[in-house]
């Protein structure tokens, strides 16, 4: 089982543990997803993710967790959604899409706890996750639903115009703190 010294669990105002995860894909087609072996049950596959550190943004936590657990880096894409695990643990997980651009031969969890990773077609991953991690299977179902309804783009309302801010900018986006 994985143990991290100095790990601080963070909770939101409603008492949910703050978590972040990524659905890691081989390419932009999003047809093969990377799963990792569970630290608690090494014969079971899960979506890489974990708890947010204090003062950490969900997107930063998601990228850090997949690097630690799956040994991959990539291009962070859209927020797929925020999922609640209500039954016993009260988790609230921010799930992002990540396109993998770099895969390490050895990574933190492979060395420390023998974690494995493997690519699966999305349909197969759903079947694998359904029995022991139904919420993780739900992440992939949401992905399929979003892709079927709007070609994978999450449609958000435009913010109201602000006369003090330029409407168009060529400068790179700066994350909020």
Structure, described:
The protein is an alpha+beta fold and 177 residues long. It has one domain: Nucleoside Triphosphate Pyrophosphohydrolase (Alpha-Beta Complex), CATH 3.90.79. The protein contains 4 helices and 7 strands; from the N terminus they run ββββαββαβαα. Strands 1, 2, 3, 4, 5, 6 and 7 form a 7-stranded mixed β-sheet that branches. A hairpin with a 6-residue loop joins β1 and β2. α3 runs antiparallel to α4. The chain is globular. The N terminus and C terminus are likely disordered. GO terms for molecular function: bis(5'-adenosyl)-hexaphosphatase activity; bis(5'-adenosyl)-pentaphosphatase activity; diphosphoinositol-polyphosphate diphosphatase activity; endopolyphosphatase activity; metal ion binding; RNA binding.
Order of helices and strands: EEEEHEEHEHH
Shape: globular
Quaternary state, please? single chain
- Give the number of domains: 1
- Our Rg estimate from Cα atoms comes to 17 Å
Number of strands: 7
Helix coverage percent: 25-40%
User: What's the N-to-C terminus distance?
Assistant: 33 Å
SSE layout:
Elements: E1 17-25, E2 32-37, E3 45-46, E4 49-51, H1 58-70, E5 72-85, E6 91-103, H2 108-113, E7 117-121, H3 122-132, H4 134-150
Helix pairs in contact: 3-4
What is this entry, summarized?
The chain has 177 residues and is an alpha+beta fold. The chain contains four helices and seven strands.
């Amino acid at each position: 089982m994985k143990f991290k010294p100095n790990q601080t669990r963070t909770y939101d105002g409603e008492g949910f543990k703050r978590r972040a995860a990524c659905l890691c894909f081989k390419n932009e087609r999003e047809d093969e997803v990377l799963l990792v072996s569970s630290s608690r049950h090494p014969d079971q596959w899960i979506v890489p993710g974990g708890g947010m550190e204090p003062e950490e943004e969900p997107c930063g936590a998601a990228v850090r967790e997949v690097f630690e657990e799956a040994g991959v880096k990539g291009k962070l894409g859209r927020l797929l959604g925020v999922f609640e695990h209500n039954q016993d643990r009260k988790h609230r997980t921010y799930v992002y899409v990540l396109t993998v651009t770099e895969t390490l031969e050895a990574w933190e969890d492979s060395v420390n706890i023998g974690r494995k990773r493997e690519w699966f077609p999305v349909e197969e991953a759903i079947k694998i996750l359904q029995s022991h991690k139904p919420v993780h299977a739900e992440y992939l179902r949401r992905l399929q639903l979003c892709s079927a309804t709007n070609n994978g783009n999450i449609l958000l309302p435009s913010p109201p115009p602000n006369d003090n801010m330029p409407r168009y900018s060529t400068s790179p986006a700066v994350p909020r703190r």
